[in-house]
């Protein structure tokens, strides 16, 4: 075999790695420096040369001495090099065209692994596989080396990742702005069935996907006070005199479009202490104290807050929000616009999308930049600002809506608080003009709340400033108008719109489910991956016996793949031939994992007590995946209960071979990509009116799972599209929930009147799952019985009845497969490409560059 340890006379690639995309561009001194360097050769040989070059020069090792991590890093750099020229070209083309850019402002991006996606976007998968094989290496093994960047909690962060993928694929200029958390979402382990959090050290072995640009750092100020002064023109102005500052260092990530040559940028900011801290050290005499101050500054981007939906109102969180937003606004103005650009026209060049309220402090920040730094009048600044922002709301839970106390805001960002007060004054004057003398209304709509303490309602501020406000599914947008912001939708009916969420089919169909993808391509030809509505062409195949057999074989093979993974990853044995029933999402009461649990315990109890022969159960494995916010007691207790039930059920001879519960720890994007394609049944069982949209629901349907779900979020639209016959609807709808809430929900009545529900809860209360301790799960059970805001017991009977229908349908495998195929064929609508088209047309008013 050829000696491949050393590179045979490689071409230098310094042009590429030395190129800076940020900071003031110096005049090129070499004719070639204006044009991006070419791509490495698209051949197995070229790939191997590049790979070995990276291994030798970047990792500094010979192939024979390299570790798996070396090999992974070299492979990643190799693939990256193929994208480099396109990245530079994209940036050049966008500037030259002076095209309008989408500035996606999001505190979270749940990206998932990068390598597979980069190989897909460059069409290098096969070449890489062959080239690595020549080196005696296995692509899959190397892909598995990658630690996913878990820079998000759940749906909101994953949605951001899908959206930037779609924009790149649709050739739309977009910069994603966010935070480079040193520690992402915690790694979950179980100890005695209880969740234990470990830090996520995703950067420990190096991240080959990021490009730091310390030379383009931005200073961000905090604290201090404001002063008035009169400027040279005799105008009264305000000056912010901050008391401390940090540096934001940008890290660029490639966001490659699918086979289209576009590579957009995700720019994540990392906090670093400024020189001021060094000076402090020098002057203070107390070296240790001064170094501590440095750590304080760098804390800002240290860790992702693991709370999903309950804001803690923590100072550090507000620091994070202002930090990344201040960096991002400055970055675009200073580095992306040409010198001398008239900021009165800023809205022609950027439209900022506020991903929930987390980045809303950008509104007063832009006002401050325009007024205090650029000398705009208030009205001029507002004219620009109110054209630059749009706001997406991702929740309906009142406790998820952020309110920052004016005490904290005034201490951290005194100038911004002044600006918010003035925005509010002007806004309330407008309200008063439209509804004269309606003081109650004015108070209701005020951006400033007075109870329980004086605070800034960020959702109101966002709504006042935004051109458009949208919810994330039809039902959610309706409820947003009617229940969360009714006064605002009355004042500005045209401001409100809906954009139903979507998911990227590149990651969640093609990468996650290659076998299904091949089957689809065999049937309808290529092209569907960027035009997902074309899945409709699969409909006739739902009655084609040969196709059905192949489809079922793909599902079976995906189950085998999952079985192998769970065995090595978690030492979990998945039995063969079971209905695979999957509930994966964050653990939250409103999502009602406890309802799924009651169903399991109910089946188990019926067999145990002899009410049902085990043979009557459809063999079923229920898989849970869920992280609980570390401070969320009820969620953590629910995880404990699920694990305890799993231990008992899985070792009970009575249900052996019939019922199994699996709860692999640390559910993340990587696991989702294996779990979802294997699932038969998708659990989407939130209390109606609570789940804004859901996006997991879409991923399951697109991969041929049938949904059991309530009339909530995007379930509503999924059911409309796939048809009632192919969707298992249960439970109260939103009006019924509201009515029951008004009447008074009394869970005890369900317990009293429903013998099976009673037997189920009693079994838990007996200590059966807790080694005889009857009180181990009091918190969960008493909550269900006494104060459950999410009415699990009210939907129990409907849920178990509908599960019985699931079993009936599953018994007819042919009918099941037909429904599964129709789910795939009819859910092309849920591509995030379609969501992006909706945003482009109705919110951003711009179009792709091509
Ligand atoms: C700590 C404060 C906080 C508040 C809200 C953190 C995170 C949030 C997010 C809005 C929660 C979230 O991820 N919402 C989910 O957004 C998805 C994308 O739109 C929807 O599909 C989910 O239904 C919604 O729960």
Automatic annotation (TrEMBL):
It comes from the Bacteria. It catalyses: [(1->4)-alpha-D-glucosyl](n) + phosphate = [(1->4)-alpha-D-glucosyl](n-1) + alpha-D-glucose 1-phosphate. Its cofactor is pyridoxal 5'-phosphate. The modification N6-(pyridoxal phosphate)lysine is found at residue 699. Its EC number is 2.4.1.1. It holds the Pfam family Phosphorylase. One of its GO terms (cellular component) is cytoplasm. GO terms for biological process: glycogen catabolic process. Transmembrane segments: none annotated. Keywords: Carbohydrate metabolism, Glycosyltransferase, Pyridoxal phosphate, Transferase. Signal peptide: none annotated. Belongs to the glycogen phosphorylase family. PANTHER family: GLYCOGEN PHOSPHORYLASE (PTHR11468), GLYCOGEN PHOSPHORYLASE, LIVER FORM (PTHR11468:SF3). This is Alpha-1,4 glucan phosphorylase.
């Amino acid at each position: 075999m050829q000696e491949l340890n050393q590179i045979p006379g490689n071409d230098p690639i310094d042009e590429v790695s030395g190129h800076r995309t940020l900071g003031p561009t110096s005049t090129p001194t070499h004719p070639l420096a204006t044009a991006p360097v070419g791509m490495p050769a698209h051949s197995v040989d070229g790939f191997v040369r590049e790979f070995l070059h990276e291994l030798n020069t970047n990792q500094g090792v010979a192939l024979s001495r390299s570790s798996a991590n070396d090999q992974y890093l070299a492979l990643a750099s190799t693939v990256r090099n193929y994208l480099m020229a396109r990245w530079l070209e994209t940036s050049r083309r966008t500037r030259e065209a002076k095209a309008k850019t989408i500035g996606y402002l999001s505190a979270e991006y749940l990206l998932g692994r990068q390598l597979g996606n980069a190989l897909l976007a460059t069409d290098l998968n096969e070449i890489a596989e062959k080239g690595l094989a020549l080196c005696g290496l296995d692509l899959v093994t190397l892909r598995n080396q990658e630690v996913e960047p878990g820079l998000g909690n759940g749906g909101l962060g994953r949605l951001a990742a899908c959206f930037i993928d779609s924009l790149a694929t649709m050739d739309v200029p977009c910069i994603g702005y966010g935070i480079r958390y040193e520690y992402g979402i915690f790694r979950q382990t179980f100890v005695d069935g209880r969740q234990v959090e470990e830090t996520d050290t995703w950067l420990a072995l190096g991240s080959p996907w990021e490009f730091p640009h310390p030379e383009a750092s931005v200073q961000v100020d905090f604290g201090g006070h404001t002063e008035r002064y009169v400027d040279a023109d005799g105008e009264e102005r305000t000056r912010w005199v901050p008391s401390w500052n940090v540096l934001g260092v940008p890290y660029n990530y490639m966001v490659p479009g699918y086979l289209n040559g576009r590579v957009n940028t995700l720019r994540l900011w990392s906090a670093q202490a400024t020189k001021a801290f060094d000076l402090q050290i020098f002057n203070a005499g107390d070296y240790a104290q001064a170094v501590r101050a440095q750590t304080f500054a760098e804390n800002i981007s240290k860790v992702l807050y693991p709370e999903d939906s309950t804001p803690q109102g923590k100072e550090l969180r507000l620091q994070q929000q202002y930090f990344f937003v201040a960096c991002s606004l400055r970055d675009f103005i200073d580095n992306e616009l040409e010198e001398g650009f008239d900021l009165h026209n800023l809205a022609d060049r950027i439209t900022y999308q506020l991903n929930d309220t987390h980045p809303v402090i950008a509104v007063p920040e832009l006002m401050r930049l325009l007024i205090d730094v650029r000398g705009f009048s208030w009205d001029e600044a507002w004219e620009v600002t109110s054209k630059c922002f749009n706001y997406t709301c991702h929740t309906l839970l009142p406790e998820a809506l952020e309110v920052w106390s004016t005490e904290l805001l005034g201490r951290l960002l005194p100038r911004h608080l002044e600006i918010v007060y003035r925005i509010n004054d002007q806004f309330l004057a407008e309200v008063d003009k439209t509804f004269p003398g309606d003081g109650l209304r004015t108070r209701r709509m005020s951006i400033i709340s007075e109870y329980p303490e004086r605070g800034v309602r960020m959702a109101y501020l966002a709504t006042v400033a935004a051109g458009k406000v949208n919810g994330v599914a039809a039902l959610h947008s309706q409820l947003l108008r009617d229940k969360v912001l009714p006064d605002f939708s009355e004042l500005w009916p045209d401001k409100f719109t809906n954009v139903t969420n979507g998911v990227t089919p590149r990651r969640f169909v093609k990468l996650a489910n290659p076998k299904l993808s091949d089957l689809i391509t065999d049937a309808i030809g290529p092209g569907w991956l960027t035009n997902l509505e074309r899945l409709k062409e699969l409909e006739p195949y739902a009655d084609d016996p040969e196709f059905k057999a192949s489809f079922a074989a793909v599902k079976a093979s995906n189950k085998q793949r999952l079985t192998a993974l769970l065995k090595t990853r978690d030492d979990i044995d998945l039995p063969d031939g079971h209905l695979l029933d999957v509930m994966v999402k964050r653990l939250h009461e409103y999502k009602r994992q406890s309802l799924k649990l009651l169903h399991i315990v109910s089946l188990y109890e019926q067999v145990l007590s002899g009410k049902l022969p085990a043979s009557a159960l459809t063999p079923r494995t229920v898989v849970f995946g869920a992280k609980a916010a570390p401070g969320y007691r009820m969620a953590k207790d629910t995880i404990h209960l699920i694990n305890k039930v799993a231990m008992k059920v899985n070792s009970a001879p009575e249900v052996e071979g019939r019922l199994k519960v699996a709860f692999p720890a640390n559910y993340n994007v990587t696991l989702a990509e294996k779990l979802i394609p294997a699932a038969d049944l998708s659990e989407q069982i939130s209390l109606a009116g609570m789940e804004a949209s859901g996006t997991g629901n879409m991923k399951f349907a697109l991969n041929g799972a049938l949904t059991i779900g309530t009339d909530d979020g995007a379930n509503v639209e999924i059911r409309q599209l796939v048809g009632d016959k192919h969707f298992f609807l249960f439970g109260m709808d939103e009006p019924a929930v509201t009515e029951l809430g008004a009447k008074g929900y009394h869970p005890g009545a369900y317990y009293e009147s429903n013998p099976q529900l009673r037997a189920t809860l009693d079994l838990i209360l007996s200590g059966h799952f807790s080694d005889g301790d009857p009180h181990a799960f009091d918190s969960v059970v008493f909550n269900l019985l006494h104060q459950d805001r999410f009415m699990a017991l009210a939907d129990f009977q409907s849920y178990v009845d509908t599960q019985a229908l699931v079993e009936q349908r599953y018994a007819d495998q042919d009918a099941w497969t037909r429904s599964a195929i129709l789910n795939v064929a009819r859910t092309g609508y849920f591509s995030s490409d379609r969501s992006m088209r909706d945003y482009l047309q109705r919110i951003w008013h711009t179009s792709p560059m091509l």
